[in-house]
Amino acid sequence: MRDWPREMCRRFCQFYFSCRTDDVPDGHIDGDAALAARTYVEANDTIKQWTAVKEGARQHLDDVEGVTADGIIVRWVEINKEDGPIKRIDVRKTVVQTEAGCDGAVSGETVSGGVPW
Ligand code: SF4
Known about the structure:
Blueprint: H1 6-12, H2 16-19, H3 31-59, E1 66-67, E2 72-81, E3 84-93, E4 97-98, E5 101-102, H4 108-112
Antiparallel strand pairs: 1-2, 2-3, 4-5
């Protein structure tokens, strides 16, 4: 009996893989749409991996505030919730200041690279 929404089944039911194996929509996807589907799955995997890396980094930043030599600011912000205040970390790279002036150029490598663990 399949009266649960598929996403609920996937997240909570131990029988999901046996119960829903034949639950595949009709139709064949190819060309740009197939590439987009593959890209979507790969992006989700990358997000999961980097979310784990980010959480590992965050654990090294408990009670840390300030700015690094290369201009990354770490601060904790208190947010008021219904059941009391919580602290949330805010980490961001400042605009890069060079000898020639402020160029604002921050590459993807600069932002994501160099994780030391
Ligand atoms: S996956 Fe589980 S909850 Fe979903 S329809 Fe099948 S048996 Fe029911």
